[in-house]
Amino acid sequence: MSSIDIGRHRQIDPPAPLPYHRIAHLTATTGKWWRPLVVILLGAVLLAGAFVIYPILVTLAGVLLNMAPTTSAFDDPRNPMDLMVALGSVAVGVPVILFAFRWGSGRHRSMRGTVHSVRGRFRWHLVARAGLVVFPIVALVNLVSFLVMPPPDLSAPPASWSLVLAYVVILVLTPLQCAAEEYVYRALPLQTFGTWLRSPLWGIILPVPLFMVAHEYGWVGQIDIATFAVCMGILTWKTGGIECAILLHTAHNLTLLLLGTWSPSSMKQGGEEPLTLLFSLPPLFVLTFGLMWWISRREKLAFWEALRGSGHLETARASGRSCPNAVDGREQRGEIYG
Questions:
Q1: Cβ atoms of residues 119 and 23 within 8 Å
Q2: What is the pLDDT of residues 210-253, one digit of tens each?
Q3: Distance from C-alpha of 55 to C-alpha of 86, rounded to nearest angstrom
Q4: DSSP string across 272-321
Q5: How far apart are alpha carbons 274 and 260 in whole angstroms?
Q6: Alpha-carbon distance 243 to 178, whole Å?
Q7: Minimal CA–CA distance to 23: which of 252, 247, 310, 233?
């Protein structure tokens, strides 16, 4: 057999599977220390552009629909224009983060989906199966909380086309708003700090204060927000992707906003009662650890072991493209290590 034949039939080992926060180290190129800085800088530029373009689009929509925001605070859940501003201005973070990773992370086509999960794609089947349990539980808890602690301005919303449009905006933009927050506060920090440091704790804990500052709650609400952020960070690390965190976030916000049309003050943040923690934290813990247990059983993992993967690099290797693995053998462990 000639040397050409030997090279042609040479066995190329696939890259070692890595946990979500270390996925950039699948190749030497994507694992360079400056790559996350490029992603963040590019994301900031794209976000600035989105903040210029999106208000123009909302203004045009208002002219076409002959509608206007209720107040400058954009916090009326019955007004579709308020919802477009409040939810849409956050939802633009989804394309911003995805394009920033695509253009700035150096990940070739077979790796681009690793911002979603270690499988190299958004796992819709995972969301569909988990959603059958998550959505009913979250909806029931929020409904009971709403009935036990009814808002002082509880009233039936007047039937109108404006209300119908408000429901449409809620159903369309709320999942995108929640996804944007998860990509910004979970995916980006985990994969940024994971490029530099082995422990996922950096990417889980350090973004929590930023997530709290972004929400103008009182001390009760801040406890709730901080706990939620930590749980979503752990869940993202454990499940090897952002999908379950987006699911939980969407189930919570979507049901609250749909109920919020019965309370014009529901979108105002601050002044939460301590009793609300009784309705928010126990279900959060149950669902978080329940999903972790489910993934552990489904993937045959220890409870505190992260799901690992290598995106679609196996396909890239099989086709003969060079994808050198820049990670030593210690990275094949998925535990939370220091």
A1: no
A2: 999 998 888 999 999 999 999 999 999 999 999 999 999 999 99
A3: 11
A4: --TTHHHHHHHHHHHHHHHHHHHHHHHHT--TTB--EE-TTHHHHHHTT-
A5: 20
A6: 11
A7: 310
